[in-house]
Amino acid sequence: MHLDTEQALEQRLIARMRTYLEAGLVLDTELLDALYDPEFENVRVDQEGRTVVLTKRHFMDRFRALKQSGQSVGDSVDDVTFPSAGSSGDLGSVVMRRVKGGEPVLYHFLWRLDASGAPTTLLREYTFERDLSRLLAMMAAAR
């Protein structure tokens, strides 16, 4: 891929990520529903190797519940950085870093790309966290 094309793709992916993150902040459930691919999965892994897989339905149910109760997912995404972005075939890849509770958290997002190379829907989110104990307990309690 030509350098200008790579840079343009990187900028498009990061712009799409910013749209996604802002939609999450304001709980724009219509936009979030459109951004998540029907096959979306969030794979979370902690330092002990424990894994939780969440689906689009899980995410959308949570966003709708938060919106209905007047809560939010956060105040800002100012701490977010994008150390890497690129593509492989028809998938765009973005690595994101942010700090939550004083701890760095790493994410890897996979976006479907259309024929022109524009990111369309978010297919996968891989999240690497210190500890999933709280989430695992919540999931067990919900069953």
Could you characterize the architecture of this molecule?
The chain is of the alpha+beta class. The chain is 37% helix and 39% strand. The longest helix is centred in the first third of the chain and has 23 residues, at 3-25. The chain is built from four helices and six strands; from the N terminus they run H-H-E-E-H-E-E-E-E-H. The chain is globular and about 45 Å long. It has helices at residues 3-25, 29-35, 56-68, 133-142; strands at 36-46, 51-55, 81-88, 91-100, 103-113, 119-129.
List the helices and strands and how they pair.
Elements: H1 3-25, H2 29-35, E1 36-46, E2 51-55, H3 56-68, E3 81-88, E4 91-100, E5 103-113, E6 119-129, H4 133-142
Parallel strand pairs: 1-6
Antiparallel strand pairs: 1-2, 3-4, 4-5, 5-6
Entry keywords:
143 residues; alpha+beta; six-stranded mixed sheet
What's a concise summary of this model?
This protein is α+β, with helices and mostly antiparallel strands and 143 residues long. The protein has 4 helices and 6 strands, in the order ααββαββββα.
